Amino acid sequence: TGEAAIRRLWSEGERPTAVVAANDAVALGCLRQLRAEGCRVPTDVSLVGFDDVEGATHTDPPLTTVRVFKEDLGAIAVRRLVERIERPISTLEKVIVPVELVIRESTARPLG
Predict the structure, then answer these.
(1) What's the rounded Cα separation, in Å, for the pair 35 and 73?
(2) Which candidate, 4, 1, 57, 52, places its Cα nearest to that of 24?
């Protein structure tokens, strides 16, 4: 969880100026624990999530995140599944999907 990750960082003496979480749920846990540690987001630590879940705009501060276009992911998955059914021995290929950085108030400008 985000809370555990922040506790571990702090217990090891790490004090990053930014945290990028694996997803928005983890980022929200980080936000809770950062507050519990007395940190101000984004003044002390910038925070970024991944997914752009609906609640990301309702946090305080609103969460900067990477928006994933879930409909596109679903279409790609179905297309790949059909390809695998039609050609079961086909080689695997890397698929790069577009994302969008959504900058909100949980990030600050870099220091320096």
Answers:
(1) 34
(2) 52
Q: How far is CA 16 from CA 9, 95, 103, 105, 109, in A?
A: 8, 32, 19, 18, 14
- The confidence band for 112, taking pLDDT boundaries of 50, 70 and 90, is low
Q: What angle do CA 64, 67, 71 make, to 5 degrees?
A: 160
- Neighbour tally for 34: CB within 10 Å: 22
Q: What is the pLDDT of residues 12-28, one digit of tens each?
A: 988 899 999 999 999 99
Closest CA to 34 of 63, 55, 58, 54: 63
Does the CA dihedral 75-58-7-100 come out positive or negative? Answer: positive
Cα 17 to Cα 1: distance, rounded to the nearest angstrom:
19
